[in-house]
Design brief:
By secondary structure, the protein is an all-alpha fold. The protein is built from seven helices and no strands. It is elongated, with a radius of gyration of 25 Å. It starts with a helix and ends in a 6-residue tail after the last helix.
Length: about 110
């Protein structure tokens, strides 16, 4: 082990370093950089904060997302999000209709 390896173990963990040397993650002290737990997700209670959060993460074209973020009020922003979701549901129904079971097949075999 080289003498300066001990100095590296005490250095703060950097994302770029982790990409180059992933074993440093194992050597890092847990109190120094806690690994986030997926169960710690908290949905904001404030509708304005929630509207900005959803507008920022929605997977749409950048101009459409920017328009949502620039909406004058939270109500306009949330209404825009609802319109996007309703559009997506309609498109999914249209695309998935080919995979829907035939209602006649669900009734079972008819006996005379």
């Amino acid at each position: 082990m080289a003498p300066d390896d001990d100095d590296d173990a005490d250095a703060p963990v950097d994302e770029v370093d982790l990409l180059l040397e992933p074993e440093r993650l194992l050597a890092a002290d847990a109190t120094e950089r806690p690994i986030p737990d997926r169960h710690d997700l908290v949905i904001p209670d404030d509708p304005t904060v929630l509207s900005y959060l959803l507008s920022g993460i929605v997977q749409v074209e950048l101009p459409r997302r920017q328009a949502l973020l620039e909406a004058e009020t939270s109500v306009e922003r949330l209404e825009g999000l609802v319109a996007l979701l309703e559009r997506e549901i309609l498109l999914l129904r249209y695309r998935l209709r080919c995979f829907a079971p035939d209602p006649d097949m669900l009734r079972g075999v008819r006996r005379s």
